[in-house]
Amino acid sequence: MSRAGRAVTAGALPVGVASAVAARAAYRALRRYPPAGEQTWARTNYRREPITLLEGPAVAVGAITAGVLGAAVGGRQGKGQLPQSSERTVASRSWLALAVTGGGALGFGALDDLAGSGKRRGLKGHLGALRNGEVTTGTVKLAGLAATGLAGGLLLGGSRSDVVINTGLIAGGANLLNLFDLRPGRAIKVATLSAGLIAAGGAVTGPDRSAGLSAVAAPLGAGLALLPEDLGERAMLGDAGANALGAMLGAAAAQALNRPARAGLLAGIVALTVASEKISFTRVIESTPALRWLDMLGRRPVPVGPAAADVAPVVIPARPDAAPVAPAPVSAAVVPPLPGRRAGRHRRVESGASRDRSIARFLEFLLKTSFLKTAVRPEP
């Protein structure tokens, strides 16, 4: 292993720890001061229990923060060492790609989280709506993820085929991981396994055996830091967090694996994405003993039959001016999706009208930030 490779390996652990600390700090800050109010990020999970989406932004912010700090520290340590300037440039572009892909996926995922209705699902649903002249937030998100993937692919460089493959890994990884965010901890467990495979694959096939470990350190540290919140069913990644985490892992694979390995991984991502249009991942997992054991690891038991009566129902008003009505207890194993709501864990507590007010408050919050005030301030 080269001197730079040993330095990268030694630096992966501090980056992972910094990412975990930053993610926890961001989560505490967001819970204390939720943008546009707590209800904007409120959902009900598959048990009909209240849950927050703020875990997702915290994971993305933690990973991006650690990446930026890692690039800054690496740049200061290598200052004045001209022979290593090329290596520092590559490392800086890699961290920049992580920040761009994570930030872009976070933004477009948050748009779908906060403004999406859930009436259209999957590629087929969104593209079908587009053919009928309806532009859904999911369609906007898909286009945004593609643009984010292209930006990351261009930043990582390489030949045209490399850029195409890397773009697919970033955009496809972002979309695929979100398909697993249907039960507590599942998406983060999949992300952890994926990070391990990327690190191992980089050690075997990549140009630098340590590149994979360094590339996955930031997203992995942030995800694991908030895994207890996810498993405890207090928070979830949502589109914002799952898309961001998947995109950053895609960028990690793009820089750690050689071209044949990246092409094979992209083919697997495409195959799973296409299969998800016809096959329920949850059903496959629950019908496979090993996968079910892994999926349930660390989770609360799923009540069935008489035990389902212990599940606390969530009070959901039928319309903004209606009196709250508590629904009858429903088995957590089979909870029918609410009309107009997103299935699985993605369900909103408030009504559609309240959602619109939440979005308005969120936009008002953005307009009040000093950055936007400076950007729109008229010239004297």
Judged by helices, strands and strand pairing, the structural class is: mainly alpha
Query: What's the average pLDDT?
Result: 77
Number of domains: 1
Tally of helical segments: 15
Compute the separation of the termini in Å: 59 Å
Give helix and strand order, one letter per element, not per position: HEEHHHHHHHHHHHHEHH
Shape: globular
The profile of the biggest β sheet is: 3 strands, antiparallel
How are the strands of the largest sheet arranged? 2-1-3
Proportion in helices? 55-70%
Instruction: Enumerate the spans where pLDDT stays under 50 for 5 or more consecutive residues.
Output: 78-84, 305-344, 346-356, 369-380
Tell me the number of strands: 3
Strand content: under 5%
Question: Would you kindly provide a written description of the structure presented here, covering whatever features stand out?
Answer:
With 380 residues, the protein is mainly α. The chain has one domain. It is built from 15 helices and 3 strands. It has a 3-stranded antiparallel beta sheet with strand order 2-1-3, with no helix packed on it. 42% of the residues are buried. The model is unreliable at 78-84, 305-344, 346-356 and 369-380 (pLDDT under 50).
Please outline what is shown here.
This protein is mainly alpha-helical and 380 residues long. It is built from 15 helices and three strands.
Itemize the secondary structure elements and their pairings.
Blueprint: H1 3-32, E1 42-44, E2 50-52, H2 55-77, H3 85-115, H4 122-131, H5 137-156, H6 160-178, H7 186-205, H8 211-225, H9 227-231, H10 238-256, H11 259-276, H12 281-287, H13 289-296, E3 347-348, H14 352-367, H15 370-376
Antiparallel strand pairs: 1-2, 1-3
Helix pairs in contact: 1-2, 1-8, 2-3, 2-8, 2-10, 3-5, 3-10, 5-6, 5-10, 6-10, 6-11, 7-8, 7-10, 8-10, 12-13
